[in-house]
Amino acid sequence: MLHDVLLADHRRLEALLERLLAAFVANDNMQMSSLWTELERGLLAHMETEEAQLLGRLEGPSPAVAEALLADHQRIRQQLAELGVAIDLHAIRLETARSFFDDLRAHSDREEQVLYRWADELLDAGERSAIVDGLRARLETRVSRSHPAPGREQAGKTTNA
Q: Which residue segment(s) compose the domain that 117 sits in?
């Protein structure tokens, strides 16, 4: 169940990437901004869930893997902030967006091959259920926010993450 829910969220984020890429190609700034906000919120909620409920547990059996995935998350957050500003300023290049999307896909593949398999094998049903509930709650909270995700501009002011 946990594996399926996390994979489904990866597929949801992947679908957003595809729609966002189409908006980049079409140079549709309004669609880019809207989809970027949705992607950013969903991706942050997804990473927060993994960090809060999965990666800490992976440190014991596989500290190097946990550290590498956390480093990926830090890099992704930095890129999200930088690209979000570039989108707000209508200054993002298609090649930059594609490179970021490729990095996200590679990270997703690593998680699916290592983290999600580990979680399914070593966590009990109650722990897996709690993680699913945590992801759903974070997604609901992020999606229901009326203000931009951390690092994005709001009413002419930059928020600090």
A: 2-147
Beta strand pairing call for 153-154 and 157-158: antiparallel
The label of the residue with tokens 């140079």 reads 27
Task: Please report, rounded to a whole number, the percentage of residues in the chain having pLDDT higher than 90.
Answer: 50
Instruction: Report the domain count for the chain.
Output: 1
Is this structure's pTM higher than 0.90?
no
CATH number for the domain including 57? 1.20.120.520
Residue range 45-71, pLDDT digits in tens: 999 989 988 888 877 778 898 899 999
Q: Say how many C-beta atoms besides its own lie within 10 A of residue 109's C-beta.
A: 11
Give the span between the Cα atoms of 71 and 66, in whole angstroms: 9
Residues contacting residue 23 through CB under 8 Å, at least 6 positions apart: 31, 32, 35
